[in-house]
Amino acid sequence: MLNGKRILLVIGGGIAAFKSLELIRLIRKSGGSVTPVLTRAAQEFVTPLSASALAADKVYTDLFDLTDEAEMGHIELSRSADLVVVCPATADFIAKMAGGHADDLASTLLMATDTPVMIAPAMNVRMWLHPANQRNIATLKADGIARTGPDEGDMACGEFGPGRLAEPQDILDAILARLANGPLSGKHIILTSGPTHEPIDPVRYIANRSSGAQGAALASALVRLGARVSFITGPATVPPPPGVAVTRVETADQMLNAVQAVLPADAAIFAAAVADWHVTDASTGKIKKDKTGKPPALKLAENPDILATVAKMKNRPGLVIGFAAETDDVLANATAKRKRKGCDWIVANDVSPETGIMGGDENAVTVIDDNGAETWPRAAKHDVARRLAGRIAEALK
Ligand code: C5P
């Protein structure tokens, strides 16, 4: 939650500006307050009145508004917030920021502020990819300015690619990650997610059907409660949520190294579907078909068990959680797995194809701990994640 946190929201002039109104609503719903600042171009897309009504606050537009200067000067306005968010950040506004211009209220505020700044860019794909814009983005990054998005997808101009404003919910998550003072504030949580790929040769690999959806949803729920999340992901189809520190890996070996590199932690959650085996003699060149028609004999060896390794470490996190994706005897297998691996909780689910859980949007889990098994009703993966994050917050109190 953003209880009492103040966001100075600079709304830039682009077609995506209307989404900033939804962002105002979401920030307020999270307990934060919003002071909107509209550039002149922004006022062509949203009216100061709608921004003001949603923010329930005065809207600022003009650097030379003497009344505003008497009530609250632009310097004070720029410093009274906990975070300055520029949404949408247009190519022109980004260029102004990178160049240090101060020729209107919005750009002057950004020059004068000493509070952290986050931008949510939105522009045409060609503009986003233009070397000048990429240079400006690199400059802002070097200046310590945080960024959420842009997303890739269909754009208002009819083109497709990177440049679309991040979803307001994702921008809120990124804001929460910086400012939230929830029950997990100050806690570091490691989360593995997605499948691993184990190479057979440079072009082929062993994989599984994990999408990384449950891991990403859980990371997002933990961030919302204020946790600092180290998100270690294999090649998943669902992207990491905003606000987490991402390490991308391919193999189980790399995943174990990445986990060890971010220890210590208050909790570690192993939601990744790690391949059980790797090919011991993975070929450095592409394996050719044998003229006799004989398939290659792949030699497999067991992968390190990341969960079991961490659960048995001396400096293990206080709470270690494993997942058990089973197709038969879910409860019995998961209970045995909890013992064998030495973790505190196992989150078990039935991934038989008929459940549609693996790669789907819903999950039905049973949480097993020292006190026994607790079965939760089938729900959206995001809802399961929220409930699990709440349970983790209780346990880490
Ligand atoms: O694959 P298995 O059913 O054993 O996975 C159970 C739990 O162990 C999961 O939480 C998974 O992330 C973890 N695991 C692991 N390293 C492996 C295999 C599984 O961390 N090599």
Name some characteristics of this structure.
single chain, 397 residues, alpha/beta, Rossmann fold, eight-stranded mixed sheet, five-stranded parallel sheet, 14 helices, 21 strands, 34% helix, binds cytidine-5'-monophosphate
The first-level CATH class of the largest domain is given as Alpha Beta
- Overall pLDDT level: 92
- Architecture (CATH level 2) name of the largest domain: 3-Layer(aba) Sandwich
First-residue to last-residue Cα separation: 17 Å
Name the strands of the widest sheet in spatial order: 12-11-8-13-16-17-19-20
Structural class: alpha/beta
How many domains? The number is 2
Bound molecules: cytidine-5'-monophosphate
- State the total count of DSSP E strands: 21
Largest sheet: 8 strands, mixed
Instruction: Show unreliable segments.
Output: none
Number of helices: 14
Share in helix: 25-40%
Q: Could you name the CATH topology of the largest domain?
A: Rossmann fold
- Find the CATH superfamily of the largest domain: CoaB-like
Shape designation: globular
How much is the radius of gyration in Å? 24 Å
Q: Report the oligomer.
A: single chain
Strand content: 15-25%
Describe what this molecule looks like in 3D.
The protein is an alpha/beta fold and 397 residues long. It has helices at residues 18-29, 48-55, 66-71, 74-79, 91-99, 105-112, 125-129, 131-142, 168-179, 213-224, 252-262, 306-311, 330-341, 381-395; strands at residues 6-11, 33-38, 83-89, 117-121, 146-147, 151-154, 160-164, 188-193, 198-199, 205-206, 228-233, 245-248, 267-270, 277-279, 300-302, 319-326, 345-350, 362-363, 365-369, 372-375, 379-380. Bound molecules: cytidine-5'-monophosphate. Cytidine-5'-monophosphate binds at residues 192, 252, 270, 272, 274, 303, 305-307, 322-324, 337. Cytidine-5'-monophosphate binds next to α12 and β16.
